[in-house]
Amino acid sequence: MAANAYVMKRPLLITHPDCEKHEKPGHPERPERLAAVMKRVHASGLSQDMDVKLATEISDQLLMQVHPKSHIEHVVNSEPDNSWLHIDPDTYMSAGSVRAAKLAVGACVEATTRVLDGQYQHAFCAIRPPGHHAELMDAMGFCLFNNAAVAAMVALEDPSVDRIAILDFDVHHCNGTVDIFKEDERVLVCSSFQDHFYPHRYLDFSNNHIVTTPLAPGTSSLQYRRAIEASWLKKIEQHQPDFIFVSAGFDAHAEDPLAELRLIDDDYTWITELIVGLADQYAQGRVVSTLEGGYNVEALARSAARHIEALI
Ligand SMILES: [Zn+2]
Prior knowledge:
It is a single chain. Helix 4 (97-116) packs parallel to helix 5 (147-156) and helix 8 runs parallel beside helix 9. The protein has 9 helices and 10 strands. Helix content is 37%, strand content 17%. The two termini are 27 Å apart. Strand 9 (243-248), helix 8 and strand 10 form a beta-alpha-beta unit. The strands form 2 sheets. An 8-stranded parallel beta sheet has the order 2-1-5-10-9-6-7-8, sandwiched between helices. Strands 3-4 form a two-stranded antiparallel sheet. By secondary structure, it is an alpha/beta fold. It has one domain (12-311): Arginase, Chain A (3-Layer(aba) Sandwich), CATH 3.40.800. It has helices spanning 31-43, 60-63, 69-78, 97-116, 147-156, 175-181, 221-239, 265-282, 297-311; strands spanning 12-15, 51-54, 84-88, 91-94, 122-126, 164-168, 187-194, 210-215, 243-248, 287-291. It is globular, with a radius of gyration of 18 Å. The structure holds zinc ion (ZN). Zinc ion binds next to loops.
């Protein structure tokens, strides 16, 4: 029996409206981000070319594949009954944050499971809060749990997956993902980011399977593409990943208010097509992408739509 004969080629989009219930007035990581992405996905007709499903919350048991019980309990017990509080200088929690965060991880894990089952090849998780700054023991950088990392651990339990790649094009370095996988050679982490910038952790850390691509403020579209080709492609070829995860942040866009790279909408089509091509070459086409940053709501919605369109 052909276990990998794909029944459906339509991509999967997993989301949940309760991911908008994590909120603090005036904070850049706001519910409108996800609402704008989903509005664009529907208005542009992209949703008609995908299967759109609702996420379910991750179980503590699966969450513990990455995060220690003490971290999960700390997050759960920190949730306020109303209003909001800060769990770290940048990271807030409100009533509804725990459900949103568990739905975000749940979406990534379900997408991964369905791709492993062969029902889908490509999936996008339209969720928040983001995850790539969440370290093993620490919520930080607007992130409570590391969504992609938990899904990656689930993928690594599948007999068809020996090695994976996590490709992160958010403008901020994925310190959380590096923290979690720095000693796990099965996981290639490639991260492009604005240099000397938040999170100021793991910026200089690299080894054979942790690939960093620091970029100067003002880096243009063309400079970005050349940097990605020069630093990622050889490593991915050597690693031969069986499954590719994407930490898809859109805050390297020129219109983003939080950072200073100069990417344009087209770059998100370019990098997604590159990743899909690599997945076809090495990973039986398997790509699960999850939303990370992107703080100009308009630019985020346009860029995410380009990314999703290229996944289709
Ligand atoms: Zn970011």
